[in-house]
Amino acid sequence: MIDPNVYITLALASLAGLAMIVAGGLAGWRGWLSLRRLELDHTQDGRMPVAVSTGSRIEIADLKERIKKLEAIAAGVDL
User: Fold this and answer.
1) Hey, CA dihedral for 49, 50, 52, 56, is it positive or negative?
2) Tens digit of pLDDT for each residue in 19-71?
3) 78 band by pLDDT with thresholds 50, 70 and 90
4) How far apart are CA 1 and CA 39, in angstroms?
5) CB of 42 closer than 8 Å to CB of 49
6) Does pTM top 0.85 for this prediction?
7) Would you say residue 5 has pLDDT above 90?
8) Given this model, what pLDDT does residue 8 score?
9) How far is residue 49's CA from residue 47's CA, in Å, rounded to a whole number?
10) Can you give the pLDDT at residue 30?
11) Which residues contact 39 (CB under 8 A, 6 or more apart)?
12) CA-CA distance, 49 to 31, in Å (whole number)?
């Protein structure tokens, strides 16, 4: 049979690991909240800050490529 101290040691190690994960998550949550507070402070004057996300950059690049293709088709150039 396994010694009961092994179970206690495993339980304490698991509890310590869980505590570290929770502490890291809490620190990340607090950081995210402080970031949101800063964003809200910057928007109090009524203007929204201009933030270009990666998704919108990809969409803009896609639209530019489509425009070039349409212009080439209109000019009679074979792609």
Assistant:
1) positive
2) 999 999 999 999 999 999 988 887 766 665 566 678 888 899 999 999 999 99
3) low
4) 59
5) yes
6) no
7) yes
8) 96
9) 6
10) 96
11) 49
12) 20
Cα atoms in the Cβ-side hemisphere of radius 13 Å centred on 59: 5
Which candidate, 39, 57, 36, 58, places its Cα nearest to that of 47?
A: 39
For residue 49, what pLDDT is reported?
55
- On whether both 36 and 65 belong to a single domain, the answer is no
Count up the domains in the chain and report the number: 2
DSSP label at residue 45: T
What's the count of helices (H) and strands (E) in the chain, helices before strands?
Answer: 2, 0
Looking at the fold, whether 2 and 36 belong to one and the same domain comes out as: yes
Residue with tokens 């890291």: 24
Classify 14 as helix, strand or coil: helix
Q: Which residue has the tokens 């620190």?
A: 27
Provide the residue range defining the domain that includes 55: 50-79
